[in-house]
Amino acid sequence: MVSIGKIGFIGGGNMGEALIKGLIKGAFPAADIMVAEPVETRRALLAERYGVVTKAEGAEVVEACDLIVLAIKPQVVPKVMPQLAGAFSDAKLLVSIAAGQTSEALEGYLPGSPRVVRVMPNTPALVGAGATALCAGRHATPDDLAMARHLFEAVGTVRVVDESQMDAVTGLSGSGPAYVYTVIEAMAAGGILQGLPQDTALALATQTVLGAARLVQETGEHPAVLRDKVCSPGGTTIAGVKELEEHGLRAALMKAVSKAAKRSAELGKK
Fold this sequence. Notes:
Layout: E1 7-10, H1 14-25, E2 33-36, H2 40-50, E3 53-55, H3 58-64, E4 67-70, H4 77-84, E5 93-96, H5 103-107, E6 115-120, E7 130-136, H6 142-153, E8 156-160, H7 166-174, H8 176-193, H9 198-219, H10 223-229, H11 236-246, H12 249-269
Parallel strand pairs: 1-2, 1-4, 2-3, 4-5, 5-6, 7-8
Antiparallel strand pairs: 6-7
């Protein structure tokens, strides 16, 4: 494992917990992980479940750690960051997963030449299947980017992008699991409509989406090529695909990504 030092989490919610779980699974010592979490019951749960050190105050965690993961909602960043600024120095790396919060905005809260890496993960990180994109702030070094990448590779796939692309990442992979859940739900409902038991329909729909995604990933073929391979002339699949096209599934998903990306940009301006 890349040498990271002590890791501090500001916020102990689902994404923070997913990272903690991945780090410990990857042999990172639980004793070197600290979590600042205002909710006492949540602190107790994280300490009991993972053996990490928990604190109520974020500044105490920042002072004690080398890499700080900012795992809070973007709306509370303007309130929380000033409370942490006094404990920061250029020797510490800030890794932020707050949607829409630019590296420049985060740097503005901190003294000196703060090292910031901005990250957009997604919730499948909870099961080690996350899709994460990250970018470096003005003062972050290549080593900083490598450390952040290593951190998130513990819970899935990582890609490095330009910061100008981060809102698009938010709209695509950050919000994307919700689109896929909707597709799975709708496919299962279609099966139920055709007479399948609910549990059977949901199991088949879930595995179909999972299997199709793995086939794209493992073959490296474009999804359109794989789709054409199962669309026999005059067959069942092409009849179903025709319905999807006529009802605008492709356009709706493209618009969903665009709308979520626009919202991410709006959050960054607040």
